[in-house]
Design a protein that fits this description.
Elements lengths: L2 H9 L5 H7 L7 E3 L6 H14 L3 H6 L3 E6 L2 H17 L6 E7 L2 E2 L10 E7 H8 L11 H7 L4 E6 L6 H16 L6 E6 L18 E3 L2 H6 L1 H4 L4 E4 L7 H11 L5 E5 L3 H15 L11 E5 L5 H11 L6 E5 L3 H4 L6 E5 L3 H8 L12 E5 L11 H12 L6 H5 L15 H7 L24 E7 L21 E4 H10 L4 E5 L4 E4 L8 E5 L5 E2 L3 E2 L27 E2 H17 L6 H13 L7 H8 L7 E3 L15 H13 L4 H8 L23 E2 L2 E2 L3 E2 L2 E4 L2 E3 L2 E2 L16 H12 L1 H20 L8
Helix pairs in contact: 2-3, 3-5, 7-26, 11-12, 20-21, 20-26, 21-24, 21-26, 23-24, 25-26
């Protein structure tokens, strides 16, 4: 099949010439600059898919197996995922290429178990970039290295609408530079996409070359002439923008009955106030022009359930009226208005907003009115950015895409935090420091004061000081993204009566402080939210609940059946062999290390402490997995079988090899630094111990077969002490050597491969037999 007919099968439309040309490039560029609404998403998603599966063999070999689309907003992520999923279905590739959505409250981590599979991962910059820096928001600490490995190896990153990403744009460029410098497995590439690309953000201290940019030709622009030359008369609004009542009256006067008017303001609070003022005006005698006209509010501070309800209303073809919104419409809504009234905003933002007026050239006449904002009211933008935009707007009378294209501008220079090579190497270590703190990556994602906490409201009992009895984690339907500053105020207002799920104990714990990416539940009676208005601190009414109809689904490996140690190990070995067979870029010595690690990874489960926990005795056959009815509380809380497995392999190999490291690290708890958590008490007085493992413990003989035969021996945890035990280098020194030998990205990738094989081995359906 030719690309054009294949593209039409996917989308229902013929490709533009530029989309055809883009897919046929010998090498993809660094950036794509194409006007809004011209099919950038289809060009990138279907371009990758064609190159990955249908292009010439040499192109397929250079095309990464994971496509990661990073977006600045949740609504963009949902829309892109819906489109990509539909295209995959239309092409009949659902069984071969999977699509996954990664947004706050809807974290699909099933993709982690399929490292050799072609897949599309779509998510917000908060969740994706935090994972790419080994500090995954809304993710268990022990799983951080898995996403870190898979998001930095064999991956095609696409940063769409990069002009809205702030500091994340330069962070993404730095990460691209680190992948080149530190090494990765498989092809990896980054692509930045925008209608208003600021190339300077992509030239960073470690990525200095000027980016190559794909742009439209004159022929391409001719194809898109209807939308590129659409009439959009431009004028300054003669209204006091600080007076919400007067602004509401101005909007009512400009609205053309039977059409759509879009009002875009710069903050959520301002949008809520303008909406309330227009709604009040519509019920007064002065608001007769608004009679029978629809009115809607849309911003980023809604629960997904409520926001989707609003979007479904305004996206209906027959909807006409006034929509008040914020920056979310700049790239997050495929919507066209006859009249646009917008706050003064930075130039790139204005261009995006203008793209929502007469988007397809469907109106013979259309108007854009801009409301001036002075420096004292510039937030959330810098005054210098508004000054630049004001200068351009005052000399223009038309805002068609072709007119705006002729304005040459680069973003004003700003001082932003920059992640450096030393930082990314330090981030490889996921152990908490003595205070329990972590390296904070928030400044590299959205800045210090612009990250979100996700809040759900449930009927808990307003004065209850006990954890919730409901064990269901919040679904994305229930969650509202709340800025970290507002979350701090909320926590104070409700006297810390907020709860979050702790995966270490599989239960709720009280929220002590606001941390970006955390998911909270609070009692519905505390208010602070309205389905129509969104999150707002002065709302006192109880919050109506929503159905948690997309609650987190437990993955198959979390529902494993009982398995003997031998059976489980053989399944894991088979799984790792299947995975590496699909990864020809891995060196043979790495294949061998992964297979050896698979054989030894669970030997430590033969330890009496583990066997007592899974079946109540230490008689053979040794068990690796038990069903939920057989499992007992451990006599040593915190006991880690992988530490014992690593000691068994160290006894066989006499040195910390790659295989030994992978064995210890395969649950993410014993990596660079192996130490007891605060408060762990030794099972035996005056004995060296860590993670429930003691000097002097007797490890029984284990024979898995093949090349895994461990005799009975006495455990000695000295190698895990700082500096080792004198007979060989300490664990931390050896792990650091491996990190530097392979590079942090590649070593984490190998951890991810082994963990995926372990999950798949656990999920295998087998008869329980004594082998």
């Amino acid at each position: 099949m030719q690309f054009d007919s294949w593209f039409k099968t996917a989308t229902g439309s013929e490709p533009y010439a530029y989309q055809q040309r883009f897919v046929e490039l010998a090498e993809w560029p660094d950036a794509v600059e194409v006007p809004t609404g011209a099919g950038k998403t289809a060009a990138v998603v279907l371009g990758w898919l064609w190159r990955r599966r249908f292009a010439a063999p040499q192109v397929r070999a250079r095309t990464p197996r994971r496509l990661v689309i990073c977006l600045p907003m949740r609504v963009l992520s949902r829309q892109t995922h819906t489109a990509a999923y539909g295209w995959i279905q239309n092409l009949g590739l659902a069984g071969e290429v999977s699509t996954h959505l990664l947004i706050g409250g809807s974290v699909d981590d099933v993709w982690l178990a399929n490292p050799e599979r072609d897949l599309i991962l779509i998510g917000t910059q908060d969740l994706l970039l935090s994972r790419a820096m080994n500090r995954g928001y809304a993710m268990h600490r022990n799983a951080w290295p898995l996403a870190f490995g898979l998001l930095n190896n064999d991956v095609q990153w696409v940063f769409d609408e990069v002009q809205l990403m702030g500091v994340a744009a330069s962070t993404s460029a730095q990460l691209d530079a680190f992948r080149r410098a530190l090494g990765v497995h498989g092809p990896s590439h980054s692509l930045w996409v925008s209608a208003t690309l600021g190339k300077s953000r992509l030239q960073t201290v470690d990525r200095r070359n000027e980016p190559s940019v794909f742009v439209l030709t004159d022929h391409d622009r001719g194809e898109l002439a209807t939308r590129l030359t659409a009439s959009k008369r431009l004028r300054e609004a003669q209204v006091d923008g600080d007076n919400i009542t007067k602004l509401a009256k101005y909007v009512a006067d400009q609205h053309v009955r039977g059409s759509r008017t879009l009002v875009v303001v710069n903050t959520v609070r301002r949008a809520q106030d303008v909406y309330s003022a227009i709604r009040k005006l519509a019920t007064s005698k002065a608001g007769t022009a608004l009679k029978d006209q629809s009115l809607a509010l849309l911003h980023s501070r809604y629960r997904a359930h409520d926001r989707q309800k609003i979007e479904s209303q305004i996206l209906a073809a027959e909807w006409h009226g006034i929509l008040i919104s914020t920056q979310v419409v700049e790239a997050g809504l495929d919507w066209s208005a006859r009249t646009l009234i917008t706050d003064l905003a930075p130039w790139s933002s204005f261009v995006q907003r203008a793209g929502r007026c007469n988007r397809n050239g469907e109106h013979a006449e259309a108007d854009i009115c801009w409301v001036d904002r002075q420096s004292k009211n510039a937030a959330p933008y810098e005054p210098i950015a508004l000054t630049e935009s004001r200068t351009y707007l005052k000399r223009l009378k038309d805002a068609s895409p072709e007119t705006l294209r002729n304005i040459e501008t680069e973003p004003a220079p700003v001082i932003l935090p920059v992640i450096r090579r030393r930082d990314i190497i330090d981030l490889f270590d996921t152990s908490a420091d003595l205070s329990g703190a972590d390296i904070d990556v928030a400044p590299f994602i959205r800045g210090d004061d612009n990250t979100d906490v996700y809040v759900a409201w449930r009927a808990l009992g307003k004065d209850s000081k006990e954890p919730p009895t409901d064990s269901t984690e919040p679904s994305s339907n229930e969650l509202c993204a709340v800025p970290i500053g507002n979350a701090v105020e909320l926590l104070k207002a409700i006297n810390r009566q907020a709860w979050r799920w702790d995966h270490r104990i599989d239960g709720w714990i009280r929220v002590e402080r606001a941390v970006p990416g955390h998911v909270w539940i609070v009692d519905a009676a505390v208010g602070h939210y309205d389905p129509e208005i969104g999150f707002k601190a002065d709302i006192d009414d109880a919050v109506p609940p929503v159905d948690a109809d997309d609650a987190v689904t437990r993955a198959a490996w979390e529902k494993s059946a009982a398995q003997t140690l031998v059976v489980h190990t053989r399944h894991v070995l088979q799984a790792i062999q299947t995975i590496v067979a699909s990864l020809p870029s891995l060196p043979r010595e790495v294949h061998a290390a992964l297979e050896r690690a698979a054989l030894w990874h669970d030997v430590g489960k033969a330890h009496p402490v583990f066997q007592q926990m899974v079946k109540g005795n230490v008689e053979k056959p040794f068990m690796a997995k038990s069903d939920s009815t057989s499992r007992r509380p451990s006599e040593r809380p915190g006991f880690r079988h992988e530490v014992v497995s690593a000691l068994a392999l160290l006894r066989a190999d006499s040195a910390v090899s790659l295989a030994a490291y992978l064995v210890a690290a395969h649950h993410g708890r014993a990596r660079v630094v192996v130490k007891s958590p605060p408060g762990e008490k030794p099972p035996k007085p005056s004995t060296r111990f860590m993670l429930g493992v003691c000097d002097g413990d007797v490890m029984p003989a284990v024979n898995i077969g093949v090349e895994c035969n461990s005799p009975e021996f006495v455990l000695d945890v000295g190698v895990f002490q700082l500096g080792g035990d004198g007979s060989q280098p300490g664990w931390t020194a050896a792990a650091t050597r491996l990190r530097d030998q392979f590079g942090p990205f590649r070593l984490s990738y190998l951890e991810a491969l082994l963990r995926a094989a372990d999950w798949r081995g656990s999920a295998a359906k087998t008869e329980l037999v004594d082998v």
